[in-house]
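Notebook entry, structure prediction.
Reason for the run: the old model in the group folder had no record of what sequence produced it. Starting over properly, with the input documented here first.
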Amino acid sequence: MDYNSVTLLKKLFDKCQENGDESSSDSENEREQAFGPGDIKQPKKSQIVKTLDNPLLKKVNVDNTIKSMDDLEKQQMNDEELLDTRKHPEYKITYKQAVTTEDIYLQMGLKTPATASCEDMIVEVRIPDETVGIDQMDLTVEEDKIELKTPIYRLKLMLPHKVNPQKGRAEYDSTSKILKLTVKMNREYDFVNF
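New structure, fully documented this time:
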């Protein structure tokens, strides 16, 4: 509800109170001329344009206001991502499990070919146009995401499973321009599968 609608509603209530306080000897013509619910309507388009053109009458959306420093940091990070013009590289996620002869030949282990029995997640990122080495790439591995920043590419990848950021390794093949990350998965029910 905008300001004009609120003021019109206030006028309606004020008229009703005045009519209720006066004696009932009012004529029918005065009641017809009184302000009624049908008189409340949307402002005309010309009024809307005038309020939008005036920077002093700018509306503030209460839902989008920043309430804490965390919200401010998140808003700044979102703004950076929107303004970032770097390319998004292609990536591929595969899984790896450590199998022994018991698992393959005797089938005595609890492992299955499913990804639930895999210990490691391998993320291969193709960055074919990149000219810098691994020392100028910024790689951040967190429990639920991987972020890679290079001069040409930027990847922010939410992982399908939680990983242990302390147990992992990264390899960069400069001839094929592929960055290979191997990280240990950290799942709640791993004791059942292993």
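Summary: The first strand starts at residue 90 and ends at 96.
The old model has been moved to the deprecated folder.
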